[in-house]
Amino acid sequence: MGKEVRIVVSVAPKDWASKDLREISDFYGLGVRLGLYLQWLSSLIANPFLHGERRSMAGAYLASSLALTIALFILVLRPECVFTAEIMVMLNIIWGGTYQVMSPFIAEFTHRKDFVMDGIQVALMLVNGSVISLSAWFWVRMASVGETDFVATPGGTSYFLFSHVKGGDLGTASRFMAFLSIWSFSTPVLAIPIYAVHKAGLVTLASVLALLTVQGFSRMAGLIYAWIFGAILGVVPPYIAYFTHTVDKWLAFRKDMNLGNWIVAGEMFLFFICSVLSIELIIAWNEISEVNGIDSTSHIILFVLGLGLFTNVIWKMARKEKEADVAESGTAFQQADSTWQ
């Protein structure tokens, strides 16, 4: 009898995975993931170099983020069994886009006041508030009672937290993520009244307090990482230039290339790599193989949307470089003409 029970427990998840994951693939299938990755790359390029494109990037991704949030809640509320790894994948996808696409946009519209921006801000707060609440619930449950609400994959649930986390280490990782989630959940509650006071124009310092509070511990950790990365790029190259007697060339390069933008782009690119790795490794380690095809309308739509945004950004970057070259050639021609006169 014991042998029969073991067979049922070990085979049932595999049977379910092979039969029903085709439905789940509409939530995070290959076409969906590629489309989102292309949107992230578009934002990565546009944020430091094409400031005028931030609004369009954020607007397009806000619609995707809303759809992903609805899909996440559908996944959690499904009456059928759902793998723990699937919730992890969805949370990583949503937060990856939030930090790479929406956070730079948030930094921009805090200095602007118009009806459209306020509407986008409210929508974003509702989406993020819902995901933060669900994320806090998920990780607290994982840390306290383990995988009782969802199903472990046949080989055991694996998670990516800077390394391969599995087995007993999953509990430790869950407690760490629960701490971050609770912090992220509690800080907006404190920030809302501060933000309201600021909007009423009663306290000017409130905007600073709201910014620091809403960021949360996870965002501060990201800022610390960005500061370290920026410090390395800001300190190491000048020393190399000093010891190689190329300081003048380094200063000219820094001025011509607008190094600050490149540092921001480098930071965001590393975060992009980490986000994509975490999603793809969780899928691979948990052997969720039915989500690696572009075989539905939703896959094609999101992929085409991401490809269109990426193509548009690349085209505008190329046009910007061409206009800069034309302007530089015109300046050089005027200088030569002035010298001849």
UniProtKB/TrEMBL annotation:
UniProt superkingdom: Eukaryota
Nuclease listed as a keyword: no
Transmembrane segments: 58-77, 83-107, 119-140, 176-195, 202-218, 224-242, 262-285, 297-315
Protein name: Uncharacterized protein
Nucleus is among the record's keywords: no
Key words, A-Z: Membrane, Transmembrane, Transmembrane helix
